[in-house]
Amino acid sequence: MTSRAEHRAWLAAQAILPAGFRVGTTSFEFTPVERGDAAAKPAHMTITLIALDRPTPDFAALFTRNALPGAPVLIGRRRLDQPTLGAIIVNNKVSNVCAPQGVATAERVCAAAATALGLLPGQVLPSSTGVIGWRLPEDAMVAAAPAAVAALQAGSALPAAEGIMTTDLYPKIRRATVGAGSIVGIAKGAGMVEPHLATMLVFVMTDVAVAREPLRAALRRAADASFNLISIDSDTSTSDTVVALASGARPCPDLGAFEAALIGVCQELAGDIVRNGEGIHHVIRVAVRGCPDQGIARSLGKAIVSSPLVKTAVCGNDPNVGRIVAAVGKHLGAHHPTLDPGHLRLTMGGRLIFEAGTFCLDPTTERALVAHLQGAELYATAPVPDYPRHERSVELVVDLGLGDAAATTLGGDLTHEYITENADYRS
Amino acid sequence: MTSRAEHRAWLAAQAILPAGFRVGTTSFEFTPVERGDAAAKPAHMTITLIALDRPTPDFAALFTRNALPGAPVLIGRRRLDQPTLGAIIVNNKVSNVCAPQGVATAERVCAAAATALGLLPGQVLPSSTGVIGWRLPEDAMVAAAPAAVAALQAGSALPAAEGIMTTDLYPKIRRATVGAGSIVGIAKGAGMVEPHLATMLVFVMTDVAVAREPLRAALRRAADASFNLISIDSDTSTSDTVVALASGARPCPDLGAFEAALIGVCQELAGDIVRNGEGIHHVIRVAVRGCPDQGIARSLGKAIVSSPLVKTAVCGNDPNVGRIVAAVGKHLGAHHPTLDPGHLRLTMGGRLIFEAGTFCLDPTTERALVAHLQGAELYATAPVPDYPRHERSVELVVDLGLGDAAATTLGGDLTHEYITENADYRS
């Protein structure tokens, strides 16, 4: 178990910025024009700047596959063709998705940041998260840009990791060293999380010199091994974005070592995102094995962690393992009706619960499963802690016995806090 | 608005049994061997018999596409080849899925009912709903069979509609007349409901003379137009079963009229199932239009009513319409990435909210949408009523503008009551 103080000290150590980066934030209040309710409390927006000391040609970005993406995603895809990138400007509260003149508004915000930073507008990447459909408070954001630039500092990524939070309970930062350099990633994401080849908002900063093309290839593989294997609520965001920036201030000892470290940072951030998912009391880790191909292993794991009935049973520390078998059967029946489920073997917390078409349940197993669920619980009752007390998960192994392909998916339970958070998110 | 007394009177009128049918129930308590906890409260099981005065060759049944179905489904598929069927025996509380010797146990229960009814075991169809993984209390069920036979009566389907309930709040019965005959359907299903070519437990009784093959064809089309267009929680049950029995006591005036009436009964029962879904405060009806084919219309509707974020927003009477667009975009991006979403047009409660790639939101629209959501609310606070107060829905129209295919899907919101119901369903 971790205490809050231990978590803060650990975060500070993770947050040491790689050479060549500065981050800064500023905040203000505004009233969304779509609500127009004088009685409504004003919304609070934080602007976060991630700036390079010198614009870099070596940057990579992945964006949501949602067919109706936000304006920052549309702009971000174009920025991939720019010769260099110098800064990222991020706002929370309003995601700028399909809002009237959303692209023009985002470009004007970029231009304001660029002016304050001495950059060209095309060197600034916009990124937004929050309510879908609302317009950005453009004038307030343009006016706030110089304050965010004035707040830039080179010591810690923590202000940025806090600045991009929405319903997140705590900032998410992970760090790895590579030779004399380092990789530091920050993430936000607690709801509307089922990345589809990209994800949430994740910003990875490194001073390790890795050129554009290998950086882009490494980021694709890292996202595939991390963010694309998680689901909090099966809803794929319109704003999912992962960006990696390499300042080049330190030499790269070995591209393989860099990619391994990048995958590690992304996997740890993916775990953090799930652990901090809206209302989550338990992380569920499903290792699917014995599949004819990796696609089946990945989609079957997602199907299990997305089943509301599996999720609510875990919430209640109730080893209602029949629902896991129902979820496996639903997925195979709907998508792979010709696969033989007769070799299915399931364990939970290392204990065999299903084999040869039959459950293996008795009172001793029941008690062991309850103990495993209770041991993985992050918290049982309010108040909700604003730090992760431990990193244990509910451990499921699903072996189809039909091949060598495997994948490990992360998800969480479904709780009263998720309903409370989302039944009136905008108010 | 309906009162409880009005609902009971309406149910009694719906429940008049077609000629040639009798139903009866009996109940008892037992302790599941898998729990073995002396402190646990015993479980309560009801056995429901649906019996024909004379076995009929004219019966039809559809079963779940879940790849790990229950023993009654395995047996039921075999019964389709039997020359005649004389009765259905249904139990709640334990679904007999992948339990040790589950098929043999279900056959022994059928044999006990057959002996008491003067039938052959192969003339009795078993059907079970409840906890997955537990064993049926075989001895208690065999002992109870004569009491269920003794309780048979020909007046009302209500005891059967009540006997098959699990977490249902009220019985579900719908009736239509065809010439001198009638069709009466009863249904149970409140959770683990996303039928895949079959569904939940639904038993349709008719005295209209329709032969086996046209009855089976009509039932397939009726399920496709009703149960296969609903989702409560996206979990496809291992036990979904729809059975239709025709006693043949009345002539069939016209096969088309019969099928239209059957479709009507099934659509009304499907609506009842959603309206009574676990924890549901609002029914959500999504009419998807303008699709290149019906498959897209059906799957897009399912995707919208299965989005946890759409569902929780509706729960809170919060017109967070951005989440609807996110759900549309997730589905199209993942499954139809080449379709152009640029013609998308959305209305809610008849009010335009999205067109030409842009939201149309302002304070007047916001207030109208809140009023529409509030008007469709079945209940806002405890106590939960055990009857449906009205049949209004949250009305969404999603027009892709890309063709003529359409489908209307029903789902519900996601509420605290769903979590409470399912976080410790078995206790």
Summarize it:
The structure is a homodimer of 427-residue chains. Chain A is 34% helix and 25% strand. Chain A has 427 residues and is of the alpha+beta class.
Number of domains of chain A: 2
**How far is the N terminus from the C terminus of chain A?**
34 Å
Gyration radius from CA atoms of chain A, angstroms: 22 Å
Q: What is the CATH superfamily label of the largest domain in chain A?
A: L-amino peptidase D-ALA esterase/amidase
**SSE order of chain A:** HEEEHEHEHHEEEHEHEHHHEEEHEEH
Q: Specify the overall morphology of chain A.
A: globular
How would you characterize the overall build of this protein?
The structure is a homodimer of 427-residue chains. Chain A is an alpha+beta fold and 427 residues long. Chain A has two domains: 4-275, 4-Layer Sandwich (L-amino peptidase D-ALA esterase/amidase), CATH 3.60.70; 283-423, Roll (Ubiquitin-like (UB roll)), CATH 3.10.20.340. The first copy, chain A, contains twelve helices and 15 strands. In chain A, strand 6 and strand 7 (181-188) form a beta hairpin. The first copy, chain A, is globular, with a radius of gyration of 22 Å. At the A-B interface, helix 9, helix 10, strand 13 and helix 12 of A face helix 9, helix 10, strand 13 and helix 12 of B.
